[in-house]
Amino acid sequence: MSIRIGIVGCGSISWEHVRRLSLLRGGEAKIVALCDAVKSNAENLRRYVNIFRNIAPEPLDQNAVFESYDDMLDKVELDAVIICTPHNLHYEHTMKAFKRGLHVLVEKPMAISVGEAEEMVEESSKRNLVLTVGYQRHCQPEYVYARRKILSGELGEPHMVVGWLVQNLVAAGRFYLDPKVSGGGQIKASGTHLIDAILWMTDTEPVKVKAFMDRAGAPVELYAVLAVELSNGALASISISGGHPRPHTDVTEEVRVWCSKGAIHIAGGAVYVEDSESNIIKIDRNTLPRVSPNPDVNFVRTILGEEENLIPGICGLKTTKLEEMAYLDVGQPIPSRLRRA
How far apart are CA 14 and CA 2, in angstroms? Predict the structure, then answer.
């Protein structure tokens, strides 16, 4: 069985999804339809898809390109969709797919409200459909190792988590700076990756959140510092910046988890384990666990019954819950006291 996939939203991130799918074996899946409100976006992506014979054994022609999501769903036989549209459309596009019996991989953040996220999880469960969220750290060896090490109990109980992430959100631009479309600022843009990673690595949920944010003249928050009580009693400090002065959009982050018997640190793409005597060992990358190459490959192989879903909807729901708690705590309007150069 070859999973027939449609992609809705053919902006920049959709190209990354195509690249990830290109790592599949021939016959596992094929892209059969592309949809974007700006037809040229879908046309450009169509030409890129056609480079990869394993996921486009029959080159896509212009009949595979749609401007209307409903038209695509009506006219093409699909098994699954990958949703790369702006944040405020994730819920609508996911629910329409579920009602047609289609599996869904939805980009992060899963939704802009807890209510939407809950309905998405419930609908996927009720219909026995796969719901995967685009949090790629679940497939990155250093994060997989850290989660397994923490949950094994070898380091004792997690007590304190510190995580930070920096990026230039203004350089990223686009709909990220429109709160009605994005549902928030840097927390919803890239900070959601860090929040998810912390909750997933520690297998916890947020209990209490105290938030501080600043827009620095932007329409959405560029800076956020969150103090969080987690469901196992651990405390987390999460700092998220979208105000990096560099002009490009690369993301830099670190996560450090101190437990009752040791600690684990992820920094610079490497993972370090610290024992109770403060001895720190860098773990050889060649020994780190390899799960699925990326969320898209895992999504397809979950549908095929070959892998477990590494990024189920519940992860998106937990993350959305923390994000919503933070926005409710800081209130509206978000302050704008800082000034950017």
Answer: 20
Alpha carbons 90 and 123: distance in angstroms, whole number: 14
Conformational region of residue 27, where left means phi above 0, alpha means psi within -120 to 50, and beta covers everything else: left
Token pair listed for 108: 């992060």
Same domain, 229 and 172: yes
Write out the two tokens for 316: 């998106």
Q: Is residue 94 part of a domain?
A: yes
What predicted TM-score, i.e. pTM, was given to this entire model? 0.97
Q: Running along the chain, 341 residues long, what does each successive block of 10 average in pLDDT?
A: 97 97 98 98 98 97 98 98 98 98 98 98 98 98 98 98 97 94 98 98 98 98 98 98 94 98 97 95 97 98 98 98 98 95 72
Q: Concatenate the DSSP letters of all residues of 56-97 into one string.
A: -SS---GGGEES-HHHHHHHS--SEEEE-S-GGGHHHHHHHH
User: CA-CA distance, 154 to 264, in Å (whole number)?
Assistant: 11
* Domain span holding position 34: 3-136
- 3-class secondary-structure state, position 7: strand
